[in-house]
Amino acid sequence: MEADITLRVDGEDRKVTVDTRTTLLDALRDRLGVTAPKKGCDHGQCGSCTVLVDGRRVVSCLSLAVARDGAEVTTAAGLADADGPHPVQRAFVANDALQCGFCTPGQVCSAVGVLAEVKAGWPSAVTEGDAAPELTDAEVRERMSGNLCRCGAYPGIVAAIREVGA
């Protein structure tokens, strides 16, 4: 069975017909040609396909495209604006938070989501007490734990996120 859906991808409305079993990741990559989110494990375990859906981070390989009909989908490619790269993207470069770059689009989208969560005061498993979360190394590591980097660029990733969140 197929369905016609509309996704607002990186600020542009995109209409597409998809099989109702198609994941958001496959709709983006295979049907719309949006290659920023990567297909790593295709099981929701690595985070390389992370995008922002209506401002919240989503592992797109586990989300059905039809369930996101009408949603605002932001990929790492859509974070930049007329002034240049997003602050998180600039911080990743400045802090050597990438090596091969395969996981970077998902890491960047997840980092933007993390910063929004902390700003909103959402606690994580390592947030102490009822206080608003502070962007400590432990807090960043916990919140980014769903995004894996096979190259081991974690120190730079944590530093980049803390720099932007400061």
TrEMBL record:
Pathway: Alkaloid degradation; nicotine degradation. Keywords: 2Fe-2S, Iron, Iron-sulfur, Metal-binding, Oxidoreductase. It holds the Pfam family Fer2_2. Residues 3-79 form the 2Fe-2S ferredoxin-type domain. GO terms for molecular function: 2 iron, 2 sulfur cluster binding; metal ion binding; oxidoreductase activity, acting on the aldehyde or oxo group of donors. The keyword Cell division does not apply. This is Periplasmic aromatic aldehyde oxidoreductase, iron-sulfur subunit YagT.
